[in-house]
Amino acid sequence: MLELAVLGILHDGPLHGYEVRKELSTKLGAIRAAFSYGSLYPVLRRMRELGWIAEEEPDPAQTAPPLTTRRGKVVYRITAEGKEHFSTLITKAGPDCYDDEAFGVHFAFFGRTDPLVRLRILEGRRRRVEEKREGLRETLHRTGQRLDSYTLELQRHGLEAADREVRWLNELIANEQSLDLSSIHDRE
Amino acid sequence: MLELAVLGILHDGPLHGYEVRKELSTKLGAIRAAFSYGSLYPVLRRMRELGWIAEEEPDPAQTAPPLTTRRGKVVYRITAEGKEHFSTLITKAGPDCYDDEAFGVHFAFFGRTDPLVRLRILEGRRRRVEEKREGLRETLHRTGQRLDSYTLELQRHGLEAADREVRWLNELIANEQSLDLSSIHDRE
DNA sequence: ACGTCGATGTATCGAGCCGATACATCGGGT
DNA sequence: ACCCGATGTATCGGCTCGATACATCGACGT
Description:
The structure is a homodimer of 188-residue chains. Chain A has 7 helices and 3 strands, in the order αβααββαααα. By secondary structure, chain A is mainly α.
C-alpha cells in the first residue's frame, strides 16, 4: 500500500522522505491519517534496494561545504523499473483493493489509471459497500432487540454512510461510462 | 483495542473464541471488519495469563443434552479483575480514543460508560473531526489547482463525510446533555 | 549577541493487527 | 456413502503505528 503511494507521489517529481510524507498527507488526507515515519523510511530503503527508486544526484554546485553536515537530505526519484512496477500494481487491482483504505489510495491515483481499470475498481468497491450495507440492514432487523441503544445508533450511522457511498459511487460510475462513450465517439 | 472489545463482549456472558469474533463482528460491523483470529487467539491467551478472563468450568448437567454438547471448545468468562480493568480502560479515554476505530469501539460500549465520560469522548471526537474537516477545506482552497480531478473529488467526498459526522455528534451531545439535566432534575 | 522554539529532517524499535494457512469436527444435503 | 459449508483452535510472516532519539535551521524576542 505505502509502496504504491510512494511510487505514485514520486511520479510527479523527486522528493525526500519528509516531503513524501507531506505530499501523501494532503493527497490522502480524506481517507487516512499520514503514514508514520516508522513505515515510510524502511519502505524507502527497501524500494531503493529493489531499484524502484534511486537517490537523486545532488547538483555539484550546491554541494560546497559539508562542514558539520552529518546527515544530509536524501532525495529520491522514481526509476524506469519503478514506473513499470507502479503500472503493474495499479492495473492488477485484486479484490483486496476494495477495502476502505486501499480503494482510497487507488482512487487517488485514478489520474494515472486506465479507464477500464477505473471502472472495474469502482464497480468492485460498490459491490463491497453494498454488501456491508446489506449486512448492517440485516443486523438491524435480525438482532435489533438484542442490542443496546448506542450500538444501534452506531449501526444506523454506519448504514447511512454506506448508503451515501453507494450513491456517490453510482455517480462516479455513470460519469466514467459517459467518458468512455464520448471517447469512442471521438474515435469515429 | 481488541482487549477492550473482548472484555466488553464477555461482560454479557461467557463465550468461546469463535463466538467472541462473531459477536464483535455484529457489534462493531459498522466501524470495522472483523478482528482476525491471528489477533484474537493470542490476545485471549494473554488475557487469560493476566487473569482478566478465565476458562469456564463446563457444567456437568449441561453436557448431556445434544444442544449444548460441544467438543473441545474453550469457553471464557470475564473475571472480577477483568471487569475492573475494563472499567479502567473505558474511563481513561485518552486522546488516542478519538481515532475512527478507537472511537467506534468506545462508543459501542457507551451502555457501560459513565455519562460524563461519554460526553467527554463525544466532544473530543467532535473536535478531532472538526480539525480534519478544516484541514480538508484548507487543502481544497489552498492547493485546489495543483490536484487532479479525482483527488479533488476524494477530498470533496471526505469533507462531506466529516461534515455529516460533526452534525451527528452534535445531536448525540445535545441528547447526552438533556439526559444529564433530567437526571439532575430527578435527583431534586 | 544569545537562547530557544517550532518546523524540518532521518532513523529505529516494540507492539498490534491482518491475511494466509493448517488442521479438525459437525450437521445436512445429494 | 460422500462431500461441503459452518464451526472451531491455532500459528506465522509481514505491514503499520506510536514513541523515541537525534540533528539542523530560520525566526523571534530580549
